[in-house]
Amino acid sequence: MASNASSRASLRSERQIPTGRVGNGSASARTKSVPPKRSATASSLRSPVDPDNADPGRVRVAVRLRPRNADDFPHDSDFTSCVELQPEFKRLKLRKNNWSSESYRFDEVFTERSSQLRVYEAVAKPVVESVLAGYNGTVMAYGQTGTGKTYTVGRLGKDDPSERGIMVRALEDILASTSAVSDIVEVSYLQLYLESVQDLLAPEKNNIPIAEDPKTGEVSLPGAAVVELRDLDHFLELLQTGEANRHASNTKLNTESSRSHAILAVHIQRSLKGKEEKDSSSLANSSDNFSSHRVPLLLKSKLLIVDLAGSERINKSGSEGHMLEEAKFINLSLTSLGKCINALAENSPHIPTRDSKLTRLLRDSFGGSARTSLIITIGPSAKYYSETSSTIMFGQRAMKIVNTVKLKEEVDYESLYRKVENQVDSLTSELERQQKLRDADKVQMQKKLKEYEASFAEFEETFSMKSENLEKENNRLELEIRRLVEDLNNEKHQNDLMSKEIVHLKMSLNQSKEQQLENSMSQNILADTTQMYGKKIEELLKQLEDEQSRSASLEEQLNEMCQQLSDTQNSLQTQENVVDELKKELSEIHEESTSQIQSLKVKYDELFSEKELLYEELKSMEEKVLNEARQRKSLEEEVLKLNRALCDNSVELESKGPYSMTRSASGLSGAVFMPRSVKSRETISGQKDTISKIFEEVGLSNILSMLKSEDLDVQIHAVKVVANLAAEDINQERIVEEGGLDALLLLLEASENTTIHRVTAGAIANLAMNGSNQGLIMNKGGARLLANIASKTNDPQTLRMVAGAIANLCGNEKLHVTLKKDGGIKALLGMIRGGHSDVIAQIARGIANFAKCESRSISQGFRKGRSLLIEDGALNWMVANSTTFSASTSRHIELAFCHLAQNEDNAGDIISSGGIKELVRISQVSSREDIRNLAKKALNSNPVLLAAAR
Ligand code: ADP
Ligand code: MG
């Protein structure tokens, strides 16, 4: 580095041509033929023949931007770039924040995509050519750690030659341009750390002193290893060894390479003898001083390629745990370089080159006597704004060095003026273009705004129309609901009348005969059932009330929606979506409430039909009661006679007399079996007393164990007691809990006795009134056992019990499939054979139970397909016999048939069995309105049936 400004200006003419040291012909393996010379390329940053760059002392500064890497995205997010490159203007814009940015001009601006070759050719190649021409030269890389100094300068590119850095490419050019015979190329590779020079080619050499020739000012390192190069591979090996030593040394010293400077010194000694004839390259042009000489001459020159320590150390090393002294040393060389550059830039009379080892080493290679290129490397991340900024300022100051040469200033001013003018022109036209684009955009936007306004008005109109319609619809629904409530109230009123009538009937029954215990109990049950319906009606009313309140809340929702809509009128697009959703929701709610009202109607119809059935049964019951009263009178007379003979023997009589169970009331909801006796009142009460006595004294478990007795009489008595107990709800659970069900089923299976079969079937029928018992009976194979008994006997009483039990099981939809599989349906229908009206009444009740539950589960979507009843022949029987039996049985058959007709999967069977005629008949002449409606519904809802009916 020149020691002052004047020496810099005059150095070229002062250039000494050292003599002596002709190529010593050491073991050079390079080709001995004269290699072809490479000419300077037009892309060079500064070619020696470039008229624009006539100042050879000018420090050329290029900036290179590293591509983004992982360090720039620490959390894969928030990356902002603070750098914007304008390579066409050789400018770099540094953004401090969104409002302020600075623009800097450099000799060359390399984007993150610039190739190593382009960087070499623009930055280093002119220096290399100048060195080949006999000048000293320096290429330095300056920048923050991690920005690509080593990548730019020191990369070996062993696998991919296009990756090679400046060092390798420079030596490639130098070796190609020199002769292995007459020229010598030698290298030293050094590291400067903490103001100590270490030899990277001979790591044992440390703290190598710097020598300076006081006359020539030439700087040398006498202690450092100097290796003469044979070829490029030799150089690559040396560079690799140097890198390995650098790594080892840094590991030992516990430092990183980023804290040290790496310096490659290339010494070239060229013999000019015999070159002039062959060589017409830049050497001859640029060194006309020598070309005229015909005497053998030696050109000695030196190229330094420096990978500087990370520039961030200037500010930060003190804070990284170093002792103050150490930190000062780490910074010293770089700080000192900065100072020298400042002094050179300001044309200061004193350049403080002696302050550090680095500046002493660069003394004869940096400044006026040599060609120098500086490449500054920066990263894109805004995170390192201040580092990047200080690097750029360093480069800018280095560029100023040339501005101190006055003559150049003028030339530069003109070209600068031209370029700036061009820039202003292009910027002005760009500005105008942008302005025009903006104007066009504005017109476009205004047009769109108008369109939006128009469509918004249109939308507003349709919306108000729609909300009016919705309001109307809502009012209509409200009216409908009110009407339904009224209907229900009327129904309730009728029901009340009915219950009054029932109470009245009950009273008259009570009056008729107190001893008719069985009948009075059945009345109680009827009263309970009526109450239950009263409750159900109340529930329905409650549901209706809920419905009303729902509709009120719907209204509220509607109001809210209207409110929302008016609130969001500013954003047309979103509003449309919201309104669409609201409409959808409203129609869904409307549909839902309509379907709920419909299902309520259906439920109401069903309840009404059940009530009708009940009413009819009550009537037939009354008839029976009257008949029985008459019968009883005659029997009483008979009993009076018998009593005389058997007055003390009532218990015996009971055990011997015919024991039977009868259904005291029937309905779809279940059947209750109570002992019915043709014996006198006294006998009945005696029997009951006996049973309760047995129960109290013997205990249930003992009674149940008696079911397994060897003695048939004991078994019969025990099963009778159990059957009687099973008629009471409160006993049913205990009987099952204590294994009574198992014992009864075992008895049914094992016993051959008809009485046992009859009474056991009755007991099971009683237990089968309870939902959870039904499941247990099925699980334990009860249906199969009952079917077996049904097939074995023709005793009408037994068949009635079995049919009653199966009929109760038919009322549980979950058991249908098993019931069918276990032959329950077949057995039920099989019992028709005897033609006993009591048995057939149970069968009809069972089928109605089954069909009703099945139809419900199909309508709720739990089941699909043809009815399970059809296969076993129920349908044909129903079609043929709906008018054959008593009124109550006929209603049951009609009801069952109408339920089957609701399922469209049964339509084919109904048509083929001739059921259409029957369906039409029921729809017209059935005595019950609800059954007529059910038939009509089946016909109207199924086009296949309707077509067949026509
Ligand atoms: P420095 O020597 O300034 O500390 P390096 O040269 O070690 O930085 O570069 C840091 C990382 O960035 C390395 O992995 C290097 O390969 C990568 N890198 C630097 N510059 C470039 C570039 N121009 N293209 C691709 N990768 C680069
Ligand atoms: Mg590095």
Question: Characteristics of this structure?
Answer:
single chain, 950 residues, alpha/beta, nine-stranded mixed sheet, 10% strand, elongated, binds adenosine-5'-diphosphate, binds magnesium ion
Description:
This protein is an alpha/beta fold and 950 residues long. It is 60% helix and 10% strand. The chain is built from 34 helices and 16 strands. Strands 1, 5, 6, 7, 8, 11, 12, 13 and 14 form a 9-stranded mixed β-sheet that branches. The longest helix has 107 residues, at 406-512. The radius of gyration is 58 Å and the shape is elongated. Mean pLDDT is 80; it is low at 1-54, 274-294, 403-412 and 645-681.
Number of strands: 16
Low-confidence stretches: 1-54, 274-294, 403-412, 645-681
Helix and strand composition category: alpha/beta
Bound molecules: adenosine-5'-diphosphate, magnesium ion
Largest sheet: 9 strands, mixed
Distance between the termini: 119 Å
Mean pLDDT: 80
Shape: elongated
Provide a count of the helices. Answer: 34
CA radius of gyration is 58 Å
| Proportion of helical residues | 55-70%
Beta-strand residue percentage = 5-15%
Brief sketch in words of this structure:
This protein has 34 helices and 16 strands.
Secondary-structure blueprint of this entry?
Layout: H1 5-14, E1 59-65, E2 83-86, E3 91-95, E4 101-105, E5 108-110, H2 116-132, E6 136-143, H3 149-154, H4 166-177, E7 184-193, E8 196-199, E9 211-212, E10 219-220, E11 227-228, H5 232-252, E12 261-271, H6 275-278, H7 282-286, H8 288-291, E13 298-307, H9 313-316, H10 324-345, H11 357-362, E14 370-378, H12 385-400, H13 406-512, H14 517-567, H15 572-646, H16 650-656, E15 660-667, E16 670-676, H17 681-698, H18 700-706, H19 712-726, H20 729-737, H21 740-750, H22 754-767, H23 771-779, H24 782-792, H25 796-810, H26 816-821, H27 824-830, H28 837-859, H29 874-881, H30 887-902, H31 907-912, H32 915-925, H33 929-941, H34 943-949
Helix pairs in contact: 2-4, 10-12, 13-14, 13-15, 14-15, 15-30, 16-17, 17-18, 19-22, 21-22, 22-25, 24-25, 24-27, 25-27, 25-28, 28-30, 29-30, 30-33, 32-33, 33-34
The structure holds adenosine-5'-diphosphate and magnesium ion.
